Amino acid sequence: MKKKNSPALGRVGLLFALPAVLYMMIFVVYPMFQNFILSFKNVDVYTFANPAKQEAVGFANYIELFTGKDGILGKAIINTLIFTVVSIFFQFFIGFGLALLFSKKFRGSAFFRGVTMISWLLPVTVAGLLFKFMFASKGGIVNQLFMSLHLIDQPLEWLLEPGLAMTAIVVANIWIGIPFNMMLLITGLTTIPEEIYESSRLDGASKIQTLFQITIPMIKPAIMSVLTLGFVYTFKVFDLVWVMTKGGPINATELVSTYAYQLSFEQFQFSKGAAAANILFLILFAVGIFYIKLINDEEEVM
Amino acid sequence: MKKKLISVLLGAVMAASLLTGCGGGKDTQKSDGGSEGGKKEVVIWDYFETDAQKKMIEDMITDFNSKQDEFEASHVYVPFSDYEKQLTLGMASGELPDLVILDGCGMASFIEMDLFGDVSDAKINWDEYIPGPMESTMADGKHYGIPFATNCTALFYNKDMFDAAGLAYPDENTTWDQFREMAKTLTKDGVTGFGNAATGTDEGTFQCLQWLYTAGGDYLNVKDGIDAYTLMQEMVAEGSWSKDSVNWTQSDGNNNFMAGNLAMQQNGPWQIPGITKDAPELNYGVTVLPKRDENAEQATSILGGENMGVVKKDDMSGAIAFMEYYDQTEVMVKAMKEYGSFPPKTEAAQDPYWLDDPIYSMFVKQLDTSIPRGPSASWPEYSNVIQKGFQEAMTSAKTPDKVAEDTQEAVDAVTDSIK
Amino acid sequence: MKKKGSNIKLFIIGLIVFIIFIFPLYWMLVTALKTQVEIFQIPTPLWPKDLTFDAFAAQLSVSGKTLQGFKNSLIIACGSTIIATVLAIPAAYGLARFRFSGRKVLILYFLMTQMLPSTLLLTSLYIMFSKAGLLNTYWAPILADATLGIPFSIIILRTYFLSIPKELDEAARIDGCSSVTSFTKVIFPIAKPGVIVAAVFSFVYAWGDLIYGITFITDPNMRPITSSIYDYVQQYQTLWNSTMAFGIVAIFPVVLIFIFMQKYIVSGLTNGAVKA
Predict the structure, then answer these.
(1) pTM of the model
(2) What's the CATH architecture for B152-303+378-418?
(3) Which of B113, B201, B385 sits opposite A70 (nearest CB)?
(4) For residues A89-111, average pLDDT
(5) Which residues of chain A neighbour B378 with C-beta distances below 8 Å?
(6) Domain A68-301: CATH superfamily, name plus number
(7) Counting Cβ atoms within 10 Å, is residue C22 exposed (0-12), middle (13-18) or buried (19+)?
(8) What is the DSSP letter of B167?
């Protein structure tokens, strides 16, 4: 396809985007910038009220978060990565399957699809409480069901064993996230003209072939954005984990977001909290760059 | 430049929302410190959430307003879980009330952050207060407010379960060994002998720390309290101390006690109205926490409750007036009866309302040997590392020796960082 | 038209997925209908023995408050949806259809703006709104909630615009339309399902927001419905049944909106809008 946009026309595109750019500049980038500055200072409970004692400390906060005695940032990053990757994996595949299913027309499909969305509409705090309650080792319905199905003999201590606690918050997060994936992929699927499917059927393509040769390439942009957005949204999940485990037991489910919150608003170590938040940001920024790189390829497809 | 941008944007947004008839803010900004009919405003922040607590503060404010003409008090509810965050934001922006009612153990941090003003000159009967709570409102010998309410945790026990097992009820002479035997005997048929709140927050520290103190340690000398870790670990291993405690908040523990899953629990007096309402037929008693051994003093408990702090402002007269109003014993007693906690004045706590009640009187007794957390501006950090130790002991992640050693090291690191 | 057998298979698969998915919701409802004590019994009954509507009654007894909360949430969510959608549509279109230097940087920019949890941006926003005198007005949460919807809508709509064949607006331009009219007359109508999805998501984000609503507004009469959760999740206890009942009541309006909007989305699906 020929690229025939003149530079002048290109600038029109910039104008289209400008209002949104400015809006986000004021309400998000500026606070982020403040956060960035804060992370290189030493603002904590002892210097908060006394600007004279606040000084630039370079990377000291960052270094301490990684190497300090009770610095658990490294662990939090690993936890966050595990949490994110496992969540995304299941969310995406289940969501994609459901999207394919629900984009077909069968009796009740609209109803099923609608109900599936509820888990995503629920306030996260409520969803978190619901799962905390379901996973309780005593009297929790999950154990009760597993035991009555003879999958386990002993109640599992879901929120108490480090590995199981991670499983529990991941399951809860998947439950919340599937509809998000499903809905966006369905929206992508609507853009595929029915004729393309028909002609592929006429060509005698199997369902699997149609999926890999037509459906997936056609909605690749949608898949890319779902995965990227999913990564960004999962990586910064806060409320759900805060409600379910508060990062425990013994930091087993401590994520970068919960750690940053704890530092800033529970321990009043404002600068360290800001530094932890910036680490979160930097990792996501790298993912963002990766997404942009992928868009390069997409241009050739489009 | 930036201001202009904001106003342009706001203008556009406003126009857009007017067009669609949606949105449109009520611009009812409260004027700050403005006077209403010549009276000076006194704004109080609190996190009182139950109907009884709300009624208590509203009654008190109405009474205060009717008894003098200089000030007009009002209160704003801020949810407990967001409370300290909201205070921090308020300090950063200057949007602050005149008087803050807050969790006692958080006060030291906010004094350090210069939220509160020195009110040592106020006409308050400073000596009449129980020393522990009073200490938490002070720093460097200066007063920044007064204790508002005080409480502590004690031992709840299910009488029916003790009767069924043929056991005598625990009392003030019960030792750790006896307590452990009781818990072991009572653990059967899906019932666990004992449980408390050991969640990984300060709420957990609040309940667990007393075991360390009773064992002979304190928050700076963790190693001296190593027996507490041993007791917890062994009882959890035996199944007589619920392993779920590690994730329980105080209400989780109480819910399980009410449902009959726990024979004994550690909890506070604020649970009593809930038990009366939700499990009226529950036959239970309360006594002081078990002591270390026969020769030991009564077990230590950790003080909870709220303080009243006067926000540092040029004119603190309104807040001080309200504090002086609350300093009157009869005001305090009336409020605390509605609130479900105990008055922080020694004399006020001797009211028959509490002393004649078999359950409340036990809490008054337990208050005698209760100590505050910290006080330290770095309490949240101490609390964090100390609670991690309790969790490690309960989940058998480490041996008691190792827990004591590591926790001591972490505590020392916090102390060092204060310089 | 279609084979009956595959329809039934789809129906069964759908049913199984539905059951697994619905279970937590079912459990939520059952919990809302139990008494606080029955909730903690072991084994816990799968259907309340002691059926009680108290938890729902509690929502209704404070119906004045619940209604006010709905109204506040509606104002806040509508306001921020309008801002988000009005700003995002042109931006997404610009980024999808025009090639200019810095285009990718802008995409990255929008992606970047949603990388920190709201809690960590709170302090600066609070100070900003305090200076602008916007605290305790609906504006503060509206403006803040829009920041959740804008980048999301842009990213989603951009890919949606990309999926619409370029020939369409090129044809429009050949017919003499300017960029703006080709956008409003040709692309926008086709993109309607995408726009609706983006708007609904913005709305849901704003509706579900708790932290901005509760931090920027201290007047209880202006707080959004989500803030009512603190009536049930208290300092010393969580009223499980009421919390669950609250969850059901709080999302009711959003579910209705969703069901209503689904028709548009489905119509986009069946019309094969792109056939044009």
Answers:
(1) 0.81
(2) 3-Layer(aba) Sandwich (3.40)
(3) B385
(4) 81
(5) 45, 267
(6) MetI-like (1.10.3720.10)
(7) middle
(8) P
